[in-house]
Amino acid sequence: MITIIDVGMANLGSITNMINRLGFKSEISNDISKIKLAKSIILPGVGSFDRAICNLKNLHLIEPLKKKILLDKIPILGICLGMQLLTKKSEEGKEEGLNIIDAKVVKFNFTDITNLKIPHMGWNLVEQKKKHILFDDMFQNPRFYFAHSYHVICNEKENIITTTNYGYDFVSSFAKENVMGVQFHPEKSHKYGMKLLKNFTENF
Hints:
29% strand; 204 residues; alpha/beta; Rossmann fold
């Protein structure tokens, strides 16, 4: 059973539907008792960094989540804002992140490029920097759907799985032990996203 954390800031139905199509079971919850029993977690999110962190605080989920990730070592996949929440902090707000990954979140800055719009919206390629199970047997020239104005900078470069170019290269996925994050939306990325979620559900 995959537990999808409901922070009140994502279209959870599309993630659930794709997992169901893959033949796996999932539940959407922000119930502490259920999260304490979780075997694997997906942390999705769309919107403001500070609002999401405050929602997690109000739901008293910060410490249970960190215990499951850091002590119990259960696998977690952060999606879009969910990936960013796993870092230390974001330029978007003042709240501290979950501080699971040594990284920060910054806004796209195109000082020398005037024709690129923020947010970065639509399909884009990812370039794999190291092998990781999330991308095992991935289709050639993998493309994923993005919708974001901020991106992650990893202080530990060995955590970077893929980068994507939008004006410059940015981190589009990372992993450290049981912790994984993707900036794109696999649930909106057709066969590419389905393959990535299949790799996650089958192997974690």
